[in-house]
Amino acid sequence: MNSPIFKEITVLFKFVQDLFSGVQKLLMPPKAYSWQTLIYLSVFSWAMSYFSIGYIKDIIAFSGWVFLMAGTAWYTTDDPLRVPGTFMPVGALITSFLVSAFAFRHNVNLVTPKTIVYWPTIAAIITAIPEFFVGTGTKSKATLPKQKERQKIIILIAWSMLISCWIQFYFVIDKWLKEYPSLLVDNFQNSAFVIKLEPKAKTPQNGAMILNKIQPLIEEQIVTRPWSEVERWLLEANQQVGNLGKRMIDKNLVKYEEQELWRIEPRVVNVNSGYRLDILSIWTGPSANKNGFYLQKSCRIQPIAAVKQPENKNAVAGIECDRTSKFFLGSPPPQQ
User: Fold this and answer.
1) 3 state DSSP class of 119
2) Which of 39, 100, 185, 307 is the most exposed place for a label (fewest CB within 10 A)?
3) Within a 13 Å sphere around the CA of 60, how many CA atoms are in the beta-carbon half?
4) 276 backbone dihedrals φ, ψ, rounded to 5°
5) 3-state SS, residue 243
6) How many CA within 13 A on the CB side of residue 101?
7) Of the ranges 98-107, 188-197, 291-300, 302-311, which is most confident?
8) How far apart are CA 163 and CA 83, in angstroms?
9) Is 193 helix (H, G, I), strand (E, B) or coil?
10) Closest CA relative to residue 295, chosen from 184, 234, 221, 205
11) Could you tell me if 16 and 24 are in contact, meaning their C-beta atoms sit under 8 angstroms apart?
12) How far is CA 270 from CA 127, 209, 275, 276, in A?
């Protein structure tokens, strides 16, 4: 009489046996000419390339890629699962990704922007190739698809190329925003192409950074200097501030393409017992606002001794600047 424990052991043993048989069937090729053989050859090629050097290493690694792409394509087309709404096999997506990664890899980076851009188009081409052959194996021959099939192929390739164009457009916009980060302050609500997922930037960081770099340099040239010299300096403020601005832009924005689109200008205004120096960081690049935008940091310059002793001709200058920059939409105020 069989005990319940013996029955449970038998069922468990049968489950393990079936699992092992399934794994063995998957891993062990039923014959030499099979997709498993190609996959194993790709693994073997990469292992051998690791111990090789020079052009031999590249040749063996190239062979590994070829075996991997061929094996994957074979396996995924045995019983193809279609992408919903199309006749494209899911295996074509997998194979095309491997082809794109191999063709557009860069050094150690297998996935590059070009890999993603060309992926849909390559997948469509791989899907279309079998339509130009009839038969299987060595008995297949080239033929021209029927008119209905040709229409399906053209539509599939056209849609895939359109998707590639949109992906490429994303990378172009992303590159622009990295090279011209000041564009992030613009309003893209009316754009049919650009959707901003992150919150809108309140001020362009590069423009504010340049003003913060210039401020201490201007303070050094003004503070405690004789008042008469400061007034002469203010008369030449356009040249003085402009030179400082160009130097700071060239030094701090060297990694950005937008460095040529910023310019620094001063505005000197007479106030009670002194002057107000407005330092403007002006954006000259494209903008959603037709008049552009600019940032402003104001500094108040006064003769220190003039407060207590107005008749003192030996007064020196004091300067006090705003801590933060102000952002303005529109054209900067005119020179006075």
Assistant:
1) helix
2) 307
3) 16
4) -120, 125
5) helix
6) 14
7) 291-300
8) 15
9) coil
10) 205
11) no
12) 75, 27, 5, 6
Which two tokens mark 213?
A: 């770099």
- CB-CB contact of 43 with 65 (8 Å): no
Rounded CA separation 198/184 (Å): 10
Structure-derived torsion over alpha carbons of residues 114, 119, 122, 124, reported in degrees to the nearest 10: -150
Burial class of 55 by CB neighbour count within 10 A (0 to 12, 13 to 18, 19+): exposed
314 token code pair: 């030996």
Q: Take residue 239 and report the two structure tokens written for it.
A: 């040249």
Burial label for 273, CB within 10 Å (0-12, 13-18, 19+), is exposed
Look at strands 326-329 and 317-321 and give their pairing: unpaired
Nearest residue to 93 via CA among 131, 134, 125 = 125
Taking 70 as the threshold, does the pLDDT of residue 99 lie above it? yes
pLDDT at 19 over 80: no
**Residue 13 tokens, joined:** 């043993």
Among candidates 166, 167, 170, which has minimal Cα distance to 196? 170
Other beta carbons less than 10 A from residue 218's beta carbon: 22
Return the number of other C-beta atoms located less than 10 Å from residue 72's C-beta: 20
Tell the burial category of 279 from Cβ atoms under 10 Å away from its Cβ (0-12, 13-18, 19+). Answer: buried
Average pLDDT (53-71) is: 78
3-state helix, strand, coil in the chain (%, to 5): 55, 15, 30
